[in-house]
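@channel sequence for tomorrow's demo:
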Amino acid sequence: MAGILSDKFKDFKVLKSEWIDEVKCQLTHLRHEPTCCEVIHLGCDDPENVFGILFGTPADDETGKTHILEHLALTGSKRFKSRDPFFSMIKRSLNTFMNAFTGMDWTCYPAASMNKKDYFNLLEVYIDSCFYPTLTPLNFAQEGHRFCMKDDKLSYGGVVYNEMLGVMGNPTSRLHYEICKELLFSLPYRHNSGGDPKYIPTLTHQELVNYHRKHYTPRNATFFLYGDIPLEDNLTLIRKQCLEDAPKASVRCSHNVYPKQERFEAPKIHHFTYPVSVEKEDETYFTLSWLQCGIEDQETVLALTLLDSILFENDSSLVTERILESGLCKQASGYLDSELSEVPYILFCIGTKKADSEKLEKVILDALREVSESPIDQERIDAALHSLMFERFEITNSSYPYGLSNALRMAFLHLQNQPIENGLRVHSLIESLREMLKDPMYLSKVVKEQFVDNPHRLTAVMSPSSTMGAKEEDERAKKLQSIQETLSKEDIASINKLNDELKKLQEEDQTELINQLPTIRIDEITPTVTTYPLDNPREEVFTNHSFTNNIIYCDLIYPLPYLTIEESLYAKIFFALFAELGTSEYPWHENLQRIQRHTGGVSLSLGLNPQSSKKDQFKPTISFSFKALEENVPDACKIVREMLTQIDLSDQQRIKDLIKQLVAAHVMSLSQNPRKFGNAEAASSYSLLSAYNKQFSGLPYLAFLLDVEKKLDENMDQVQSALVDVSHKILHFNDPKLVVGGDENCQKKLEQSGFGGLLDLKPRDFVQWSPLEIKWERQWSLIPLAMPVVYCALVIPSVGREDPHHVPLMVAAKILNNTQLHSRLREKHGSYGSGAGQHPESATFMLTSYRDPQALLTYQEMKKSIEEMAAGKFTRENIEEAIRNIIKGTDNPCAPGHRAGVRYAQEMVGLTPEVRQKLREGYLKIDREAIIDATKEVLLNRLPDASFMVIGNEAIISRDQEALEKETTLEVKIVRAR
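structure tokens (generated this afternoon):
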């Protein structure tokens, strides 16, 4: 790890330097004295190096200028003039992460790589893109918004415009923006920083350029750096690339310093609606929100973080339990947003009735009042403290690289001029909190002050409306029509000219410009696969030793028994309910507290484990997973044993509540992630694996859940009996395997304890699993939902991993995604994204689009893309880009605690190190003719046998249905999601 700097490096002054033991990093905070640019570095032994360039960018209206600028900055710069250096670098690098984020009052440009040369390549491109972007009017028209003429009708285009149509079609996004607008009405957070589609088209190109000049300056910039690359190397490059010739500055920008929010004199109520296809009385969203302390009051923020867990974290939390007991709500969860200058708390209640709003509010406020009047039980406080410490200790990269997660924890504090180390520290902050907790009423007083007696409270009730979607569509159409009526022939000619120029730019051969971007050559890629060791200390135990901050990770695995289709559907419910139930000794609310106090979480899951060597062969397993701090391993193992042997399915009311929560979550998922359901529908035509995914995770499973919920009261005994029967079959304890990851000392203690008795459970009757007979057929389906965009999927029958065409098709998928689909669907037609993938387990090849303004044209462009590939319209550089994409996907770092599980899973499906090495060698030596041959033989020849699916906006579906019917010999079916 790099050494500690003195108080200065060249013209950088060290503002802070200290060791942060909780994350095993040396924190160094510096300021470039001539420009006031700041650098925050976390030096450590992690080879996954991360950088992020952060700007304070508060929104001042609803036009989405911060969001559009985030896109536009990455579409060409002073040194790197290709029209799309961001997407080009995705293809030319070995990055483990690349993105750009628009927050509520900040914008961040992060990337990560395990390769030092690649890391600096990315940093150079990002610096030039941020500080010296070209911001051309044509790129503004492509990424932001523009007018288009389609069939003599005026329409809107633009990537961000269509993206935000999709975002605002998500009920929870709409709800969040409405709450912020009302609760934070005098702060920049009241604005939709992503942009409201109603107002995005009013933003001018010059306004965007002016915003960049004001905000993307060194005096408003902070570089976050993490990893084992020496700080001096980073500073040298940053200084040379963007600071040497930058304007001098004596003070930092104050864009993110806001006056205090004016407070309500009394609580407010806000009613509004959201679009749905079919109105259901119990699909109202009810929320209570409070604006609480300022971010500078870190003592209270930490207390509120603890209270979030005590009051709302799970069904046994003090307030959530009361909410669910009332029967007025199916699901409740809270959210403390500590990334703003003043901290809001939002309590979401899902699956409510509008008529019950006042009753539900009274239940919540009464529960909070009761908490404020007496001391909180010490066991609950200890459990919440444990959760907080576990979250901060865990080394994970599930959402972002670990280094980026740490950087973001500091970033929000940094923007508000708060001590950045508080984002990383646990022990000192907890010790300070423990001192406050010596007063048994301390947390109760915080509840009284921040919740009960706080008049700055908003009740927001969002009800479903089956007419709202059509109304919004009609309003957009009328607005465009009124604009069109004012256009002269010259105006229309100008619109067409701009779109023609944009099309010309998009079709321009930019190979020479793209090749000016830095890259990693194929011969610089490590030729061998990364493999994590898996020890086998005894026949049924598999271990990997890695530093995990004294956390141990365990997966107790059994083979899946034979289950009928109905039993399998109930098994899915049981998997979801398992960790929320009690045992014969501990009622469910006590068991949840024990889980929170002694573990980092438990779960029960199913893995089909499709075999890599042959289509539709499986080794299905059940995995009971848990994680725990070293000192809690004995208690965690005891809890696991009790849950496996004494799970309680006798509490019918608890089962009812959990099923209602499960249904609410899946209904919400349909609007939040329609692509998952649509892709499952499209892919189900070609393999047993895909048919399973549709049956047990797609629309049929949702329909089953809705049917179970509908008949719960009259059929509760039957549901309970089915769950009991399936639990006896699932928890059979035959042929157990224990997979363990974590620190070596933790594992030794576990072994010395006889592995916590987890391998000594008495086996029950067991019937070997055999495949289910699930019928499937090729289909073209249209699934209307109340949202303003669509998601499309074209699925072609393909080959398995053992077929010689598999490797060429993997490369072809990346080429399609990088070239044809990106250009045709995103750049030309404004869909937010697209993708292509070869899926050997199901022997399918899938092309997708999302947040898409069209269906028919997307299908036609997907077909043309395959035809272009089959005709060999790609270059050697395209092939190398695809290879880099594949290799970096296989080489992405794995969080240390998960390495044992990942390696075991690879072995389960037949992806041994030898198989993976052979595949890698195949990618590295792939030739052009093999790609063309595979595209012709598999994709082009089987295109007539493809399935196509569209899920989303009903108007788009209706408009394109007739034309789509002419593209296939199959019946194009309308499938209702509910």
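heads up for whoever presents: The chain has 34 helices and 28 strands.
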